[in-house]
Amino acid sequence: IVQFLVPQIFDKSNKEHCRIYTADNAADNRPLEIVQFLVPLVFDQSDKDACCIKAAKIAAKNGYFLIVQFFISCLTSPHQRENIRFQCVLKACSRHHEKVVASLGLKPDWLFQFSTIFNFTAAMAIQGTNSALDSALSQMEPHQITHLLCLSISQRHVALAVTLISDERVSTQHVDLPDSTGATALMLTADAGHHELIEKLIDLGASVRAEDSQGRTALSRACEAGHVRAAKALMDRGADANHRDNHGLTCAQLAQSFDQRQVLRLLNPTEISDKELHQLLSDAGFTQQRAKCQQNLADWLQEVARVLTQDRRQMTGSYAEGWANSLVQVNGRTAADSDIDWTVLVAGQKFHLEGGCDRRYRICEVETPLQVTEGHAQVTVGTGSQPAVAATACGVRPAQDTCHAIDCCSSFCEDRIEKLLRNNLDHVHLVRATRPSSTNELRVSFSFQEKRIMRQLSTVQGQLFTFIKFIFKRHLPLTLDTPGLKTYHAKTLLFFMLERHGTDPETEAWQPHNLIALLNESLDMMLSFIDSSSSPDECMPHFFMPDAPLYFKNAGIGGDFDNTKARVRDRLREMRSDIGGVVEQLRRLVRPLQSEKFYFHPFTLLPLTAPPAVTKIMEGRDKFADVYSVVHQCTLFTARLSQPLSSHLYVNFRCLSWSLQAELLRNRAPAIAFDHWIEQLLGDPDLEELLTLAHYSDCREHVELSLQQMEMIEKRETRRHGDAGRGEDRLDHVFAIA
């Protein structure tokens, strides 16, 4: 049809235009015969060249390599043919038309000068279509092949690098040729972390001992960049981790200076198996048996405390639950950053919750139940958000928190409690706590149910909780400077794990060989909780009340605290990929037990309170309550006498011993050994001891002896200080007491 129509056009100008236009369309639509017919008919050579150049580019873009070759062959100037060849190669590379590129050929320099051509070659290597590359390699000098190999490695074109390494024209002389900085292909591979290329390069003859201009080997550079797998591959093939660069730094020191923790773990192995982790925690006392002992001690203290305080208090929290009150070992001690928690139910007051109160009691019928919103009961007047009154640690006495709570008439969210606890008999209670930016509400607390659940944990379940608590309370805030999670978050996370795998400790999931897997799963679960909420304050749902969120520590403050969520999430992700490093931190903290005994000092563990007066010595736990009262009275007496004007508490323990004897043996046989007291006094009498003798002895001679010795002490102090007036005042005070 074309051959018939073109001659029918009589106007020469129109005919020429028609030929050129039709040739362009033919280049865009593939019919080679039409192109071969039309192009020779174009009379003007400049028009013909312009037509061929334009049409060749169109054909190259569309992948018609035969048409491209024909148009280029029609050009009269060699310079034009070479120029359009390059432009067609560029067009074809941008569209990945390998046949066009292969038919035209690649000049080696084009690979280095134009990223489009280089990226095309890399893409073809992935497909295994390398005819264009083969043609270029046949024209290259050794240094060009090395340059291309290094470029493919640094640009992360692994398939192209593998193709070059596998080519028979690439040999040892290519792989170890350094660039201007002294870097070899193996070093660049280490920089980029291509562990899969390292063995291929070494098999080809690459040296692991070669150094760059700074004296660094491939292993040095891998450690600096933090590529663990690359470093491992190099070490497996003989790379020296003790090599020092020009600055005298070893591989470990380079990794340390760039905070490459995973590489440091590789260089200084600290891997620990599930069995070793389980044994590590067991040796430190984190076992079900030791937890039971701790729980029994807590129950004993609770009963004595109830006698002393005469209120409805329960010990709650980690000490009572038996797990991780100390993260060092389970020996009865309380960690410095932990405390003993007491919950005191306010007498004579009871609340009713909508959805919990079942109207079983007569009073329930007349009381209006409180609405519960996101775990908080709505009340008319708020009571603040300080659930506990803290007594700070002092000496060997641990810190103690006392939470005054209001009992409820029933349980709440019973279906959730039954997931972990059968036969729940405890009611929930309300504590003084609100959500961020909320008022007029009280938080629903399940601490009594939580205590029972925690007391049922097996050794592996308790160890998992201990490890999670270590991460949340110690590793994140102290090691990584990222506070935000608390013990309650760790406990809640454990509850969700118990729900997922069941509470039966005999199931496969709760066996010691799964301990690290359980930890990884827990961290993944925590990350999913954090990601599931868009609020910067919320971190996870409450276990018993899924519609109630738990908040990060210091939530609602704003400012930099709004970044807590992002920081915690990032740190947890880092830990998830470096569990071995976290285990190593735990290993440094825990200590194996030196003795099976527990530290148990009731006088330092019971709440500070004025005990009731002793009427008679009772049996059982009440008996100890009476002893506690006696010691309390004696301690205050001796301390008050010794330093009446001082704010410090000083106790003479010989005097305390005498006071206890006098209190416990009064009107009993054997009689108090006052003569023995006097023998000890004659050596170096102490004012407090003299006062104790005068206070308890009914013998006139003992009182006179005490007064004489007091006068001597007072005169000696007066001469020493030169302050007679002050001495007389003190003596008058002492005599008044005596």
What does this structure look like?
- The protein is α+β, with helices and mostly antiparallel strands.
- The chain folds into three domains: 105 residues, Serine Threonine Protein Phosphatase 5, Tetratricopeptide repeat; 307 residues, Poly(a)-polymerase, middle domain; 128 residues, no CATH class.
- The chain contains 36 helices and ten strands.
- The strands form two sheets. Strands 1, 2, 3, 4, 5, 6, 7 and 8 form an eight-stranded mixed β-sheet that branches. Strands 9-10 form a two-stranded antiparallel sheet.
- Helix 6 runs antiparallel to helix 7.
- The longest helix has 23 residues.
- The protein starts with a helix and ends with a helix.
- About 2% of the residues have low confidence.
- Keywords: ANK repeat, Repeat.
- InterPro entries: Ankyrin_rpt (IPR002110), Ankyrin_rpt-contain_sf (IPR036770), Dendritic_Spine_Reg/Scaffold (IPR050889), Mab-21_HhH/H2TH-like (IPR046906).
- It holds the Pfam family Ank_2.
- This is ANK_REP_REGION domain-containing protein.
Determine the number of helices (DSSP H or I, runs of at least 4 residues). Answer: 36
User: CATH topology of the largest domain, anyone?
Assistant: Poly(a)-polymerase, middle domain
Tell me the number of strands.
10
CATH architecture of the largest domain: Orthogonal Bundle
Provide the low-confidence segments as ranges. Answer: 640-649, 723-727
Average pLDDT figure: 82
- Content of β-strand: 5-15%
Taken from the alpha-carbon principal axes, the silhouette is: elongated
Strand count, sense and barrel status of the largest sheet are: 8 strands, mixed
User: How large, in whole angstroms, is the Cα Rg?
Assistant: 43 Å
Structural class designation: alpha+beta
Helix fraction, binned, reads 40-55%
CATH class wording of the largest domain: Mainly Alpha
